[in-house]
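Escalated from tier 1: pyridoxal-5'-phosphate holo job.
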Amino acid sequence: MTPVSSPDFIRADDVLHGRLSDAQSVYLEKKYGHGKLIRLLEVVGTGGPFKVLSPWELQDRAGQRVINASGYAALPFGDNPPELNAFLREVLAHTDQVMFAQQSITSWRAALEANLVRLLSRESGDHQSSRVFFSNSGAEAIEAAIKFAQAARPKAKYLINFTRAYHGKTLGSLSITPNPNLQGPFKNLLNPAVITLPYGDAEAVERAVKRVGDQVVAVVLEPILGEAGVRIPPPGFLRRVGEVCRAAGIIVIADEIQTGLGRAGHWFESVAQGLIPDILTLAKPLGGGMLPVGATIVREEIYKPLLGSIETVKRHSNTFGGNSLAMAVGLKSLELLMDHDYPSRSRQLGERGLTRLKALQRQYPALLEDVRGAGTLFAMNFRPVAKLPFKVQANLISEATGMLALVAFYRQGVLLNFSLNAARTMRLTPAMNMPDDLFDEMFSRVETAASMHASSFKLVQNYGTPELLALAKAAFLEE
Ligand SMILES: Cc1ncc(COP(=O)(O)O)c(C=O)c1O
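Tier 2 regenerated the structure:
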């Protein structure tokens, strides 16, 4: 094949047949893609390219086998699961439906719309006449939710969100993601009418509703904060928010993009905790880890003001949402989740894993400040590797702690997730169909990694400051 440094085009067949080497891919990604991130991952050693050994195990370029506890809750069945892979091949071989379905009816989309509404209505005893709008990511599902809500309450202007929430990085979803670092220079483009309340504080919601309730479009919440490191609200919080909003006519949007479809141990965490939202967003696992699928499920009366009349029917759309391939994968993913009752399995695995994490935290309190879990959404909160009085340094220390922990656990063969709103918290989001022995092995490796670093300071000693500085320098300073 032509050398990658030549300006010639790369043939798809060359990639298909493995003629683009790992080193060439790294070179091209760094040169033409998100170079800084790739460089950082390369130096930390967790960026692959990986060979997929099984849906749950990866092998890196150095030949190390790692159990994949990453995937950011988007891999319900692991990476490239054989059931979905085989099904996709069948779809491609046999379907006679249009692939590009923006302006046509297709059986694939019709079936997934019906199944999602039927599932939510089975679980909540409500939502029988709700509708589904499909998009291509979680952030887009949130954008649609905000637009549906605003169109249904046109005279109101405020959105209520919560501290440390994460709803995405497009401008609308970033408006309700109160992370100053992520909002950065875009602040002036974001919706100013956002009221951020302390997560878990139902009384704060009551007070805000009493004050400005008639001007509130919607309350947007995650039933468990995912990117803030699996933070579970106090019992009764979700139920109370639902009651307060219903009484005031305020729309409740439950963002179940991370928690939903079994990850936190139930089909819908909000519903399981007594809150029936008016709008519910889904994404990540709906695409089975294979294709992007976002869905916004909306009560009919809230759906209509945005898309229910001849004047407004074009106010929201996207080109590829609902395409047949994405819908086929979504339909099959949902079916696999139901046939195997993975939400229950996620709950059982969750109890088993959290028991081990709690024991570990008791054993190594100088390493682990806290551990948390809900279903197969686990978090380990590491103690800072050092204490410094200034905030800016504290942020750097947090970043360093997280990164060192990631490296330490990776070297014992477990790939963890960063948390976007909690630098010192690493999450495990293993596939819900991970075999029992591998699941137990994953926690054994976690225990080994912890035992080798009985305190956070040990992380610095083992992968010490010089190494960390070298990482930072290599990633950000040297070109
Ligand atoms: C709760 C929640 N909402 C929204 C999003 C955004 O989804 P996406 O990255 O697909 O845009 C995420 C992603 O992590 C999420 O966890």
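The chain has two domains: 12-74+342-477, 86-339.
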